């Protein structure tokens, strides 16, 4: 289409999503009508159920099986080649359960994001809900952050907090947190697509968004 003089349109950004399993966060991104193109979904596991969801939606899928590579460096090199084949502006880890090398994180600096099921910097790593319950915390949640060489850390973009309820099990708490994951991850990607979110050289997050919540989550509730 020919654009009228002076009406140059900004190019639509593209996104590659990396998964390892169920793919519910991937689905939340696919269902969010984001203002960007999902170029591909890549999994390190051929049996990841999320791959089928992506295929059903007509998204290109690719498997880069970590077991086919002798070490993290060679796996990350192959993974980067698979990602770069799509020249994405944004790479979103959505339940991608491999530790990435600092070199990989640095290469995608500012355009690689992750969702983690805790209020970072608390509870990086695995079994976040069981560990939170064991510690007796009253507020738990999830975090979207830029990925750095530091596992499950890196500049925070957005977080959602949920109350921990009497009688919670890791499964009930996980479900409450997951509902919030599905709200905040599309929001973070939407900001990136729109160009309103960035990471500066000093590692600070910049967001052109002024809406500030005016309330506190208190758990258990006050009488
Ligand atoms: C999600 O809870 C995500 O936050 C977590 O894995 C789950 C994947 O579920 N990611 C991590 O723990 C990363 N450290 P999904 O495949 O249904 O999106």
Note down, in words, how this protein is organized.
It is a single chain. This protein has 223 residues and is α/β, with parallel strands linked by helices. It has a single domain (14-207), classed as Rossmann fold. It has 6 helices and 9 strands, in the order βαβαβαβαβαββαββ. It has helices spanning 24-30, 49-56, 72-84, 102-107, 128-135, 170-194; strands at 13-19, 36-43, 61-63, 90-93, 112-116, 139-146, 156-163, 197-199, 205-207. The strands form 2 sheets. The chain has a 7-stranded mixed β-sheet with strand order 3-2-1-4-5-6-7, covered by helices on one side. A two-stranded antiparallel ribbon has the order 8-9. Helix 1 (24-30) links the parallel strand 1 and strand 2 (36-43). The termini are far apart. The mean pLDDT is 94. Residues 19, 21-25, 50, 94-95, 115-117, 152, 178, 181 line the site of glycinamide ribonucleotide.
């Amino acid at each position: 289409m020919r654009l009228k003089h002076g009406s140059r349109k900004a190019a639509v950004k593209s996104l590659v999503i990396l998964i390892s399993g169920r793919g519910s966060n991937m689905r939340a991104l696919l269902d969010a009508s984001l203002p960007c193109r999902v170029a591909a979904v890549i999994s390190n596991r051929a049996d990841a159920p999320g791959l089928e969801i992506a295929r059903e939606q007509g998204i290109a899928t690719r498997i880069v099986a970590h077991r086919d590579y002798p070490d993290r460096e060679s796996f990350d090199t192959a993974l980067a080649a698979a990602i770069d084949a799509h020249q994405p502006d944004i790479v979103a880890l959505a339940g991608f359960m491999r530790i990435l090398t600092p070199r990989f994180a640095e290469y995608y600096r500012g355009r690689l994001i992750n969702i983690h099921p805790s209020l970072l910097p608390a509870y990086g790593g695995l079994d976040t809900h069981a560990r939170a319950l064991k510690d007796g915390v009253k507020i738990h949640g999830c975090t979207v952050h830029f990925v750095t060489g530091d596992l499950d850390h890196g500049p925070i973009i957005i977080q959602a907090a949920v109350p921990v309820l009497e009688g919670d099990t890791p499964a009930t708490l996980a479900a409450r947190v997951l509902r919030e994951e599905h709200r905040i991850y599309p929001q973070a990607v939407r900001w990136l697509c729109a160009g309103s979110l960035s990471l500066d050289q000093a590692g600070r997050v910049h967001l052109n968004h002024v809406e500030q919540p005016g309330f506190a989550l208190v758990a258990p509730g006050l009488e």
